[in-house]
Design a protein that fits this description.
There is one protein chain. Helix 4 packs parallel to helix 6 and helix 6 runs parallel beside helix 7. With 321 residues, the chain is of the alpha/beta class. The strands form two sheets. It has an eight-stranded mixed β-sheet with strand order 6-7-8-3-9-10-12-11, sandwiched between helices. A four-stranded antiparallel β-sheet has the order 2-1-4-5, covered by helices on one side. The chain is 31% helix and 25% strand. The chain has a single domain, classed as 3-Layer(aba) Sandwich (Rossmann fold). It starts with 6 loop residues before the first strand and ends in a 5-residue tail after the last strand. Bound molecules: adenosine-5'-triphosphate and magnesium ion. The site of magnesium ion (MG) has 3 residues, from helix 1. Magnesium ion binds next to helix 1.
Length: 321
C-alpha cells in the first residue's frame, strides 16, 4: 500500500529572482521576483491544478521543479530525494520519474525526427531495447495516446496540433513517470480538441496512476482534472484548496478575493478587476493583491497575510477570508 499522505513532490520557500542589470558595471538595478517564496505539495496519484494570470511565475516554477533552471533558495523534494542537491547522474534518474508536456508541440518536438526517433530517444534513455522490442513498445505507446501504428514513420509536421500533443504525451509517459507536469498543455488547441486531449490525460492518469501538476491560466480547464487547486498571484500562492471548495458555486465568499475574480471572469484571460496586474518588478507592500482588491482595508496595505489553514485542507493568504 502506498501511503497517500506521503508527498511525492514537496516545495518549501522556493524563490527565483531574475536580476535586471544595467550600466557600465553591469549592476543589478532591480529583480523580477518570478517565484517569491512558494510552498507546495503533491501527493501520490494526486493532481494539483495551478492557475494564475499570464506572467505570474507558473512556468518559472515548473522549470525549477524540472531542474531546467536553478532556484535561488528553498528546497524541493521529489519521491523522497532532494532535487536541489542531486548530481548529474541522479538527476537523469529523477527525470525519468518526472516528465513534462509543454504548451507548444511545434517547439517541443524536433522537426528533423520521425516519431520513431522521438520515442527512441526517450525510451533508450531508460534502457536498451532489441529492435523488435522497441517497435512493440513504441506502437503500444502510440496506441495508448490514440494514434495508429503508421504514425511511427511520420514527421511532426504531418500531424495536427492535437495529434502532436498526443505524441508529446506518448514521449512523456514512455519512461513510466510518477508525475507529469502539464504546462498549458491544452492552451494552444481549440475547444473541441482541448476536450479530447483532456479526456486522454484523464484516462492515462487513471491507467498509469500518476500524479500531475497541471498548469493553466484558465481555471475552467482545471475543473474536471484537479484534486486540489493552487492559485498563484505575483510569484506567490494566494490560495491552495480542495477543487470542490473552489468550484462550488455558493462558495465565492469563502475563497481568496483574487480567486473570486478568476471565477467570475470565467474563461477570459485577463481578470476583470480594476487596474492592471502589478509588476513582478514592483510588488505592492502588504498583501500583494491589495491594489486590485475590492475588499481591501487599511491593514492590507501594511501587513502581508500568510498562507494560513482556514478549513480542512483550505489555505488562504488573506486577512479577511
Ligand atoms: N530567463 C528569464 N530571464 C528574465 N526574466 C524571466 C525569465 N524567465 C521568465 N522571466 C520573467 O518571469 C516572469 C514570470 O514568467 P513565467 O513565464 O514564469 O510566467 P507564466 O505564469 O508562466 O506566464 P504565462 O501564463 O504567460 O505562461 C515574467 O515577468 C517573465 O518575463
Ligand atoms: Mg507559462
Amino acid at each position: 500500500m502506498i501511503d497517500m499522505s506521503e508527498n511525492l513532490l514537496q516545495l518549501k520557500e522556493v524563490k527565483k529572482y531574475f536580476p535586471i542589470k544595467k550600466g557600465l558595471f553591469y549592476k543589478t538595478v532591480a529583480n523580477v521576483k518570478a517565484v517569491d517564496g512558494v510552498d507546495l505539495s503533491i501527493g501520490q496519484r494526486q493532481t494539483l491544478g495551478l492557475v494564475g494570470e499570464s506572467g505570474c511565475g507558473k512556468t518559472t516554477l515548473s522549470r525549477i521543479i524540472l531542474r531546467l533552471i536553478k532556484e535561488d533558495s528553498g528546497s524541493i523534494y521529489f519521491n523522497g530525494r532532494n532535487l536541489c542537491a542531486a548530481n548529474k547522474k541522479e538527476l537523469r534518474q529523477i527525470r525519468k520519474g518526472l516528465q513534462v508536456v509543454f504548451q507548444d508541440p511545434f517547439n517541443s518536438l524536433d522537426p528533423k525526427f520521425r516519431v520513431r526517433e522521438i520515442l527512441k530517444e526517450a525510451l533508450y534513455a531508460l534502457e536498451k531495447y532489441e529492435t523488435s522490442e522497441f517497435e512493440d513498445r513504441a506502437v503500444g505507446l502510440l496506441d495508448q495516446v490514440g494514434l495508429g501504428r503508421d504514425a511511427i514513420d511520420r514527421f511532426p509536421y504531418e500531424f495536427s496540433g492535437g495529434e502532436r500533443q498526443r505524441i508529446a504525451i506518448a514521449r512523456a509517459i514512455s519512461t513510466n513517470p510518477k508525475m507529469l507536469i502539464l504546462d498549458e498543455a491544452v492552451s494552444s488547441l481549440d475547444v473541441l480538441i482541448q476536450k479530447q486531449i483532456l479526456d486522454l490525460l484523464l484516462k492515462l492518469k487513471d491507467e498509469l496512476q500518476i500524479s500531475c501538476l497541471f498548469i493553466s491560466h484558465n481555471l475552467n480547464v482545471l475543473k474536471n482534472f484537479s484534486d486540489r487547486i493552487a492559485v498563484m498571484y505575483l510569484g506567490k500562492m494566494a490560495e491552495v484548496a480542495p477543487a470542490l471548495r473552489i468550484f462550488s458555486e455558493d462558495n465565492l465568499k469563502n475563497v481568496h478575493p483574487y480567486t473570486e475574480a478568476l471565477i467570475l471572469s470565467g474563461v477570459r484571460r485577463k481578470v476583470s478587476l480594476k487596474g492592471e496586474p502589478e509588476s513582478l518588478l514592483n510588488i505592492p507592500s502588504g498583501c500583494r493583491f491589495h491594489t486590485r482588491c475590492p475588499y481591501r482595508k487599511d491593514v492590507c496595505r501594511k501587513r502581508e497575510p500568510a498562507l494560513e489553514l482556514k478549513k480542512n485542507g483550505h489555505f488562504i493568504a488573506c486577512h479577511f477570508r
